[in-house]
Specification:
Helix content: 40-55%
CATH topology of the largest domain: Aspartate Aminotransferase, domain 2
Number of domains: 2
Shape: globular
Radius of gyration: 21 Å
Number of strands: 13
Bound molecules: pyridoxal-5'-phosphate
CATH architecture of the largest domain: 3-Layer(aba) Sandwich
CATH class of the largest domain: Alpha Beta
Number of helices: 13
Structural class: alpha/beta
Length: 405
């Protein structure tokens, strides 16, 4: 018998999607660092703040009190009730406890949702720019992502007209993400109203609304949940979590709210895959929702200050332009004019530009292609002002080197 080759025995679904470019760039940056290079990473979508103390203490107390056993698969009743109450009070969604599924991060909520409503060959409408992970999960479910190109000129805004023209009888799900990773755009009431009108007119279409950045909005932007609009609750799966607003990425806690039959299907999926979220983390999440929001607001203010400083600096750089984010901790920088002016020996697309930037200027950014918007790069400002300043200095030097004769 020939030697057994494990790599030849992988299921075909492993190859249905590619590894996240964010993780690839971060891994490359870490490898360079391990070799001793002084690399600045503006790639990760992770708050640089620690989880607020009262939430950490609540987790320790819950662990000491013996909450170290399996929790019910849909989540602790106390947390599901607190989430339902939060959705009613803050989002205007008339959610009930049985409509809430607590998950291992928003990412699992998204996976549960897509696996529950998308069948082989179903179309999922994905307005670009979009968070990279949706594409992989859609493909795992056997669905077909239908990407709608976005534009810098429109401020990367959702276009109801574009969505309407992409719909077919196989359309099952529209994914919206507001505030949006990576553009920082926050959908306006008028935009959401127009989208809701289109969704309601389709016999089979539902919405997955990813609202994980809801607490990170700037100036007078206001986060609105599409499920709160008339007739939309039954058709919407609202996804949210604790990672971003409460700086709880490592805790792995998120949730979804959907009509009871869909919530039950998501619980079934979760029961088959992870059996649900950690018990003492769920107890701490009740404290996060019900306790003081001072720390959440302080972090929001810091992100807003950084946004202002980053934008002021980016505006001084030639051949690039950035849309001013209304929320999140990302800026999407359009570099298409810069790429068009590249020296002959230098890369001419965003992916190879990011590789070059990392290798030659030790700055890690994420290529826009990963979000369906080639010709751009994403800068994360979830990092200290000093590192941001140093990173932007390197970007300025890189731009100068890139176009010199
Ligand atoms: C738009 C969006 N949704 C969901 C997630 C995942 O969040 P979680 O850490 O709760 O799984 C992220 C994380 O980067 C994100 O950017």
């Amino acid at each position: 018998m020939p030697p057994f080759r494990p790599e030849e025995h992988l299921a075909s679904r492993v190859n249905r999607f590619v590894e996240s470019a964010i993780l690839r760039m971060s891994a490359k940056a870490r490898a360079l660092r391990a070799e001793g290079a002084d690399v600045i990473m503006l790639t990760l979508g992770e708050p640089d703040f620690d989880t607020p103390e009262h939430i950490r203490k609540a987790a320790c107390a819950a662990m000491e009190a013996g909450h170290t056993h399996y929790a019910p698969i849909p989540g602790l009743p106390e947390l599901r009730a607190a989430i339902a109450e939060k959705l009613n009070r803050e989002n205007g969604i008339a959610a009930r406890e049985e409509e809430i599924v607590v998950t291992n991060g928003a990412k699992q909520a998204i996976a549960n949702a897509i696996l529950s409503v998308v069948d082989e060959g179903d179309e999922v409408i994905l307005p670009a720019p979009y968070w990279v992970a949706y594409d992989g999960i859609i493909r795992l479910a056997g669905g077909r992502p239908v990407v709608l190109p976005g534009s810098f000129e429109s401020g990367w805004r959702l276009s109801a007209r574009q969505i309407a023209s992409a719909l077919t009888e196989r359309s099952r799900l529209l994914i919206i993400n507001t505030p949006c990773n990576p553009s920082g755009t926050v959908a306006s009431p008028t935009e959401l109203q127009a989208i809701a009108n289109i969704v309601r007119a389709h016999p089979d279409l539902m919405v997955l609304s990813d609202e994980i950045y809801e607490y990170i909005v700037f100036d007078d932007a206001r986060h609105i949940s599409i499920a709160a609009l008339p007739g939309m609750k039954a058709r919407t799966i609202t996804v949210n979590g604790f990672s971003k607003g409460f700086a709880m990425t490592g805790w792995r806690l998120g949730y979804a709210a959907a009509a009871a039959p869909i919530a039950r299907a998501m619980v079934k999926m979760q029961g088959a895959i992870t059996a649900g979220a950690n018990a003492f983390v769920q107890k701490a999440a009740v404290t996060a929702l019900k306790g003081s929001r001072e720390a959440v607001e302080a972090m929001r203010q810091t992100y807003q200050q950084r946004r202002d400083e980053v934008m002021a600096r980016l505006e001084t750089l030639p051949l690039v332009r950035a849309h001013r984010p209304e929320g999140t901790f990302y800026v999407l920088l359009d570099i298409s004019m810069l790429l068009a002016r590249a020296r002959d020996d230098l890369p001419k697309d965003d992916v190879t530009f990011c590789d070059w930037l990392l290798e030659h200027h030790h700055l890690a950014l994420t290529p826009g292609s990963a979000f369906g918007v080639p010709g751009s790069v994403r800068i994360s400002f979830a990092t200290s002002q000093e590192l941001l300043d140093a990173g932007l200095n390197r970007l300025a030097a890189a731009i100068e080197a890139y176009v010199q004769a």
